[in-house]
Design brief:
The chain is an all-alpha fold. Helix 1 runs parallel beside helix 3. The relative contact order is 0.04. Among the domains are: 47 residues, no CATH class; 52 residues, no CATH class. The chain is built from 7 helices and no strands.
């Protein structure tokens, strides 16, 4: 298909929304310009349908959404230093735990057999400690359960907005 010299004129007429009555004879003879006119009509109809189907929200809804978005961005900006501090605190806790584990490892007996002998020598101490724990296990378990139940309730009451 070859280009037509009147193609820019057809495109301009379509873009300006003029009727193509004056170009009707040319469109009947020129296949390239007729195809351009058909495509333009199709695009124009699609645009009208899209504009008709567009849902524009109410101004109050747009305002509400922008307010919520601004608050969320402000909260995100404010929480960045807190997140950084929590990361540093977590790294410090991991470092401290690693240091304590290394210290505990150095204090262990030199060999596994020495460890077993030291445990065997303290067998009576372990038995006495186990008996003591079993005697006080029920009150200890009840105390821990009470803390697990009461602590979230106390936090809720302390942090609740009245």
């Amino acid at each position: 298909m070859t280009e037509c010299t009147r193609e820019p004129e057809v495109i301009e007429a379509i873009a300006q929304g003029r009727h193509l009555d004056e170009l009707r004879d040319h469109l009947a003879r020129c296949a390239a310009c007729a195809e351009i006119a058909a495509m333009a009509a199709m695009f124009r109809d699609e645009r009208r349908a899209a504009v008709g189907d567009a849902h524009i929200p109410a101004a109050g809804t747009v305002w509400w959404r922008s307010t919520i978005r601004a608050r969320a961005e402000a909260a995100r900006t404010v929480s960045q230093p807190i997140t950084l501090a929590q990361g540093i605190a977590g790294a410090c806790a991991i470092g401290l735990a690693s240091g304590l584990a290394a210290l505990a490892w150095r204090l262990l007996p030199a060999s596994f057999s020495d460890l077993i002998l030291s445990i065997d020598a303290r067998r009576e101490e372990f038995a006495t400690a186990s008996a003591l724990v079993l005697q006080h296990a029920l009150p200890l378990a009840l105390g821990l359960a009470a803390c697990l139940v009461i602590a979230p309730l106390a936090l809720y009451l302390a942090l609740a907005d009245d």
